[in-house]
Amino acid sequence: MGMALACLAMLLPVLAGGLVWRRVAPDATGLETVGYGAAVGVVLVGLEMILTTRLGAHYSLVTLLAPLALAAAACLISGPRGRGIRSPADGSAGGDRVGVSGGIALALIVAEAGLVVWQVVQNPKLADWDGWAIWGIKAKAFFLDRTLHEYLTRVSGHAFSWPARPCLSSLFQAFVYLCLGRVDEGAARLAHVALSGALVLIVYASLRRRFGRNESLVWSAVLVTMPNFTYQCSAGIGNGALGLYLFAALAALDGWESRQGLRHLAGAALLLGGAFLARDEGPIMGALVALAAFGICPPASRPGWRATLLSCAAVLLAASSAYVLWRSLDRAEHVWDIRTTWLDPDLPSRLVHHARDTPAIFRMMARELVVPGRQARSSPLENRVGVALFWPLFGIACLSIRRWWRTDAMGARCAVVVGGGLLAYAFGFVAFPYRDLAGIDERWIFVLDRHVIAFAPMAVRAMASALPWTSREAVQAPPS
Amino acid sequence: VSYGWRLIARLALTLWLASALGLLADQVRERLAPQWPYPEIPSRNPREVEAVIEGCRTLLGQGGTLAIVYPDENWTYVFIAYRLAYLMYPRVLTAEPYSGDPDDDEASAFSRSRQQHASRLLVLGAPDTIAPDLTLVARLGPEARVYRAEPDHP
């Protein structure tokens, strides 16, 4: 009984998020609603916890669930009647039946999901070092303290766990603990698996707006069977959450030029806010997503520059407010401080030094991605073929971008964000004064390899655009 | 869509399928093999590391607090410090690293940790002489010692 109630409590954010998303996008399919609902629900829970702390109060399960239930009820009462408008790409029209390739891909996705859950059940502990030392300790603290303030004031003693870092997945992990009434690392890992499941649903839905069912399933399976993805989806770290929100925001902004509704932009801003709250590089990557979404428009559908600028600024401003709210909690000593990084007089010389090292960094990144380290759980065959294939294929997709970007702006935006994001990661580490630039060693590579997973969904989407493997014309969803 | 692009895509996807099947087979093999709950313990003797962690938890009991001093270049000790801080939150008041630098040695980390007024002090990797005025409570390993730093709270 207790477990059933806990599960119901954990599902309420998904329900509320799904209903909010149906108000944002009435044409969303069922799968799309579940995927976006989970993503939105987690952001809502995180914002509630931050706001409660900001008001100087302690949260409880009731104070977190009540506003979600109210939001769900409000959406139900004010929402449109009926099923809403369904796009021709949702399988009801313009789609295709699941063929052999789609069936194999679906079987692979199900098998991989089963294996990941099996692993968690077999070892229901946060085995990953970062999973407990950085993300897990935050979740435990937020659960035990019933506020974010206590932990954030322990900066000096717990500097190793990066207290000031935005940590949306830890907030949700704490919510899971609140539902269960105890710290349960296995449940935390399963919650992260569920978030990865939401990402796969959103990727699939995004692909379905453009491609047939089989192509969409195959490319979704490519993402799911990436060894780094399978590892990180249950490790309990925040990189997967960043990938989820970056992709969801970009997919939500896909076709903004034809929709341009305020609700649509508000929904995208909420998801972008999730990216801002997911990790400390979230604002930079989120800004990159917004710039790509508003900057890359096929000439035929390009709106006026004023509308573009205003929409971009509004979305960025709304998303930033979540990040500003988080930063306002943390007035104590910062692990990473703007004054000691960007106003550092040595910064120009360090940038020059770093620019010289960049080719070496990229060579090492490529080597590590081709032959992954211990965190990439892969077989010898997978090592030689699968991992060695992924980023070269993305490279081919980028090289051929001139051929397809006019017909598939979403794919082009994804390619730009991935390319820009990789560059930003390589250069961005200069901002961290505690990392010795002279020591470009395997620690850097480990970090980069781990972070690159946030771009894997977008890389898959770009590859799908560049490598159509059937001669069938792509399904083009009309604007809703 | 040109035939060449379709050929490249089909070849790539066939190779991917082979690799995905390899990944699945490897994962099944991994699942059926004996499991070690913490594969990331950076030590040749994980049992010793576990013994230090469990020893500290037992010594602290229900009411004590702990401060830790550890060398940041030894990953085994870093692991112990972080792991204890996670397992015993919020009773590990501070985990103070030290390096070999003269201005960041074990003595300065020791004095920083004393400022937190924890009831016990775990010193990892430092010589015995670091805490001459404190009572040694337990030696949990060759270089892991617990001292009584403050009176126990009721």
Précis, in short:
Chain A is mostly helical. Chain A is built from 22 helices and no strands. The termini of chain B are far apart.
Describe the protein.
- The complex is a heterodimer of chains A (480) and B (154).
- By secondary structure, chain A is mainly alpha-helical.
- Chain A is built from 22 helices and no strands.
- The radius of gyration of chain A is 21 Å and the shape is globular.
- The relative contact order of chain A is 0.12.
- With 154 residues, chain B is an alpha/beta fold.
- Chain B is built from four helices and five strands, in the order ααβαβαβββ.
- Chain B is elongated, with a radius of gyration of 24 Å.
What attributes does this structure have?
heterodimer, A: 480 residues, mainly alpha, 69% helix, B: 154 residues, alpha/beta, five-stranded mixed beta sheet, 4 helices, 44% helix, elongated
Q: Please state the CA-atom Rg of chain A, rounded to the nearest Å.
A: 21 Å
Order of helices and strands of chain B: HHEHEHEEE
Helix-strand pattern of chain A, N to C?
A: HHHHHHHHHHHHHHHHHHHHHH
Oligomer: heterodimer
Strand content of chain A: under 5%
pLDDT averaged residue by residue of chain B: 84
Report the sheet with the most strands of chain B, covering strand number, pairing sense and barrel closure: 5 strands, mixed
What fraction strand of chain B?
15-25%
Shape call of chain B: elongated
Distinct helical segment count of chain A: 22
Per-chain topology:
The complex is a heterodimer of chains A (480) and B (154).
Chain A: H1 2-24, H2 30-54, H3 61-78, H4 100-122, H5 129-145, H6 149-152, H7 168-180, H8 185-208, H9 213-224, H10 227-232, H11 239-253, H12 256-259, H13 262-278, H14 282-295, H15 305-329, H16 338-341, H17 347-370, H18 380-399, H19 401-404, H20 409-428, H21 442-451, H22 456-466
Chain B: H1 3-32, H2 46-60, E1 66-71, H3 75-87, E2 92-98, H4 106-114, E3 120-124, E4 135-141, E5 144-148
Parallel strand pairs in B: 1-2, 1-3
Antiparallel strand pairs in B: 3-5, 4-5
Helix pairs in contact in B: 2-3
